[in-house]
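Ticket #4471: structure output looks truncated?

Reporter: J.K.
Steps to reproduce: submitted the chain below (560 residues) through the standard prediction queue, then opened the result file.
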Amino acid sequence: MDALCRAEPRSRRPAAASASPLPWARFSAWLDCVCVVTFDLELGQAMELVYPYDFRLTEKEVITIFFLSFSLVLKILSSNDGGFLTVCFCLLQKTSICYLSFPDSYSGGLGDTQFSFRLRQSGGQRTTHYEDDGEYNREAPLMLQRESAHYFGYVYFRQVKDSSMKRGYFQKSLVLVSRLPYVNLFQSLLQLIAPEYFDKLEPCLEAVCNEIDQWPPPVPGQTLNLPVMGVVIQVRIPSRVDKPGSSPVKQFNQENLLPAPLVLPSIHELDLFRCFQPVLIHIQMLWELMLLGEPIVVMAPSPTVSSEMVLALTSCLAPLRYCCDYRPYFTIHDSEFKEYTTRTQAPPNIVVGVTNPFFIKTLQHWPHILRVGELRMSGDLPKQVKVKKLAKLKTLDTKPGIYTSYKTFLHKDKTLIKRLLKGIQRKRPSEVQSALLRRHLLELTQSFIIPLEHYIASLMPLQRAITPWKNPPQIRPFRQEDFMKTLEHAGPQLTCVLKGDWLGLYRRFFKSPNFDGWYRQRHKEMTQKLEALHLEAICEAALPKPTECQTGSIICCWLP
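Returned output as attached by the reporter:
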């Protein structure tokens, strides 16, 4: 176990290398740490390196990161030598050997693989070199705020044959751990540094970390040039004041950058069209399930497909924040495994991405299961999965499909589906298809949320009710029935052509964590606005003139 939790680098970074008063301060603005996870036949799983040197992961986090970033090797190793299972069983005494005999990814494919995961922080609050979380979160969009209770892990895993290794395989993962959901940026960064690291090992990684420690901090609204390994990555950090749907990076100072920078159009947006290709005709149902915070299992053939599908689902509510938990890639070794698989209580409001067929049995009581396979074509079009009853979910050889008894409140947008399918036939670029899909989801979410925004704005006291001589007035309570009455003349039908039971959808939404999260955030913002207006009224109030007593001393009249 000591080998599992010890993660000291072989050499510490020289103190003089940092231009910041605090070592790793700029690095920590982007990343919490960089991990190298390897498999040792004698020690078992091992965290080979962690940068920076003073960052500490708990034993639970080390174990979780290992399995999340390394489970692709389990099929080869468990099939070749049962001794591997013995090592794992000794290290994880509470993990049954029957779980480990079912590899989390049933793929023995060779090559490079990238995917993402999200894990719960354990061990309480951590000290950090970066002390600007409050300012960043105030200016960043809600869905891009820095997480306080979870880590994001971005993995680049390599598995290739190597005759010099005892077992004949080279297996290693490079993992970027961050509290920022910048999936596109960090996966692009891994594509640059991981191949070099696997060739040159530790010195290369230390040099990259030193370069990241020179980056400017992520400031919402700014376009930044981030140099690494002779390449300049140009990104724009989105701001809360940005117009929804507008995220192109405006290139600047190109003439001073040689070679030309690698411009990322977005730091966080995935190729939605590619992710949703097998479920395009059901995009309306998936949007509703995410809006209502329903428990969903995504069963995929690989961690890449699993993590991308989960992240695509959570992003389809933008600009509304998805307030439930989500795990882009989840394994049987995760510390929350028992919590999510128990049948003694209802499944939690979470989206879970898995690859192990064992989950078909342990999660078959969940209400919504999305089973996706490798993309198949039906003529010129991607083959679409079908909606099936949960009773047809088989423990073995489960076919792709959406297993649910859910009935949608809104009708399908057949016009959108026709446009997307026609775009495939005409070989329209995937970026254009994704833009169409993202625009549709954005307008759908806005049509749903605008009536709520109008109603909650009406609960704000009038400005003339704010006086410096009294406490700020209270925000009126949100009454669901009063809101429902406004929908007849100011409902979604004004901005959305979709027909259906909008009233039923709102009533169901009121019971979801997403409504609770939206209301709490809006109420907080309105309270802060009231306090600011009250303070402004106090500052602008005319103070009474001081009076002079017989002794000539000044008597100040203080405000109550």
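Triage note (M.O.): checked the attachment and the full token line is present. Confidence is low (pLDDT under 50) at residues 1-21, 72-103, 550-560.
Status: closed, working as intended.
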